[in-house]
Specification:
Blueprint (H helix, E strand, L loop, with lengths): L1 H7 L15 E4 L20 E5 L14 H4 L5 E5 L5 H11 L7 E4 L4 H8 L6 E4 L12 E6 L5 H4 L10 E6 L7 H10 L5 E4 L15 H10 L5 E3 L25 E8 L3 H11 L5 E5 L1
Parallel strand pairs: 1-2, 2-3, 3-4, 4-5, 6-7, 7-8, 8-9, 9-10, 10-11
Helix pairs in contact: 6-7
Length: about 290
């Protein structure tokens, strides 16, 4: 049925091109021979494209190669299901690197060049990459993302494959939900991390205090001995188990720049004492009393 409809749209008496004002196209059709017929919908007006590919029935998707030229205003691009299929990965990677207005991206594995490109994409706000557990991108060193969604471990998980990451800058419009143990997981995945910044340390309005405490920062520093700058919003008032022997919990570290902006501090003297012992190179703490 789908194939007959697509073929009929290409013939008279249907005006060509059909649907010239189309803005969104979603396709989860799984007959591989039909995919190439979708190109009749690639209009300059198209801003949102979703194509789902069924694993093990990989179609020839070369028909989407000119997508960036045909749809110059595309802001949302979802093409997934191909996993690590190299021909599709190469095509998808090339397209992504030609989409200057991209805001939302969902895909499977990409080339290293495409990963480097999206790491600093100025308009990207929503990223969903499905990466197999045995694939690690070794050369990505700096990652900056503007995210609409809340930050939790499911959001962070696709980024854990960047094993050589040195700087992580995340800007988000919703609260952060990361436990101390999840900070330890992040640190174990990024042993070369030097800079981490979540909203530049500013905490978004939320009913409950952040899940992350000073213990989470200690876990992160222990896993990332090169960490020199941390801009985070954490609950710095949970000091149980830390205030008595802070030096026993943290090893030699290089943390110098600590910004905890918009983070209320109930006992500044105790917090300053702990940080001075645990992170002796810190020159200034930015926070709220």
């Amino acid at each position: 049925m789908c194939r007959n409809v697509l073929k009929a749209l290409r013939q008279s008496p249907v005006a060509q091109p059909p649907l010239p004002n189309l803005q969104r196209l979603d396709c989860s059709h799984f007959i591989r021979e039909d995919y190439h017929l979708l190109d009749i919908f690639f209009m300059p007006s198209l801003t949102n494209l979703t194509i789902e590919v069924e694993p093990f029935k990989f179609p020839d998707v070369s028909f989407i190669s000119p997508l960036a030229a045909l749809c110059p205003h595309l802001t949302s691009f979802h093409l997934f299901g191909y996993e690590a299929h190299e021909p599709i990965m190469a095509i998808v990677s090339n397209i992504i690197m030609s989409l200057p207005h991209l805001q939302t991206l969902r895909c499977d594995q990409l080339s290293q060049a495409a990963i480097d490109f999206i790491a600093w994409h100025p308009s990207l706000t929503d990223l969903d990459i499905n990466i197999s557990s045995d694939h690690r991108y070794e050369s990505l060193h700096i990652l900056q993302l503007d995210l609409v969604a809340s930050i939790d471990i499911d959001t962070i998980d696709p980024l854990l494959c960047f094993s050589k990451l040195r700087e992580l800058h995340l800007f988000m419009g919703n609260p952060i939900h990361l436990s101390d143990e999840e900070f330890a997981t992040m640190g174990a995945s990024w042993p070369s991390l030097e800079v981490i910044s979540f909203n530049d340390g500013y905490m978004l309005v939320q009913e409950e205090p952040p899940m992350t405490t000073l213990r989470g920062l200690i876990f992160l520093v222990n896993k990332c001995p090169l960490l020199r700058s941390a801009h985070l919003a954490i609950n710095i008032n949970v000091l149980e188990g830390i205030e008595e022997h802070p030096t026993l919990m943290v090893g030699v570290n290089n943390l110098q720049d600590l910004v905890l902006a918009d983070t209320p501090v109930e006992n500044p003297r105790a917090v300053a004492f702990i940080i001075s012992l645990a992170f002796p190179k810190v020159k200034e703490i930015v926070g709220d009393e």
